[in-house]
């Protein structure tokens, strides 16, 4: 059985582990460089991208993650995890870096104060019915997609909140907190294949 890692530096690690285990995956936490090399897929959780960035450098896992993404590792990022996957970041803090891989700009904290957190039903045709129950928590949006990036879901106003580029999957929202398992299942399919 393929082994999937959850990057466990900061963020909602446990919620991802729960969904992945419920789907039958062999799940390990990734915190050290050697663990980066031992997984067949990686989930980057939600949390705070500037903190994940700093800790990834402090723990010495950054370069290995960047390398594995370049080599085609399936990765699923939610919210801060999506930010970490983006090649370009808007509204990052000074010096903030991402792992990159996804040819898109991701804008941090894209929703105003009054709607920092909200839940909506999203149509995601690629996942089939029913719509996705999506929880947004100080969420980013995806802008300026490269030609290889496919949109999986957008808000009714057109803002893009779920994308895929080959083995990379990213959602601005948190399926792991609303009982939505189809994105994780899609990620596991990439890992298995
Ligand atoms: N606003 C956070 C960031 O910039 C992301 C929030 C989240 O992951 N729920 O990283």
Describe the structure.
The structure is a single chain. This protein has 193 residues and is an alpha/beta fold. The protein has six helices and twelve strands. The protein has helices at residues 13-22, 33-38, 49-58, 62-70, 80-85, 182-192, and strands at 3-7, 26-30, 41-44, 75-78, 86-90, 102-107, 117-122, 132-137, 141-143, 150-154, 160-165, 168-171. The protein has a seven-stranded mixed β-sheet. It has a three-stranded mixed β-sheet with strand order 5-6-9. Helix 1 (13-22) links the parallel strand 1 and strand 2. The longest helix is centred in the last third of the chain and has 11 residues, at 182-192. The protein starts with a strand and ends with a helix. 47% of the residues are buried. The model has no long low-confidence stretch (mean pLDDT 95).
Outline the biggest β-sheet. 7 strands, mixed
| Low-pLDDT regions | none
> Helix count?
6
Strand order of the largest sheet: 2-1-3-4-12-11-10
**Percentage of β-strand residues:** 25-35%
CATH fold label: Rossmann fold
The global form is: globular
- Can you tell me the CATH superfamily? Class I glutamine amidotransferase (GATase) domain
Global structural class: alpha/beta
> End-to-end distance, in Å?
11 Å
Structure keywords:
single chain, about 190 residues, alpha/beta, Rossmann fold, seven-stranded mixed β-sheet, three-stranded mixed β-sheet, 6 helices, about 25% helix, globular, binds glutamine
Summarize the structure.
The chain has 193 residues and is α/β, with parallel strands linked by helices. The protein is built from 6 helices and 12 strands.
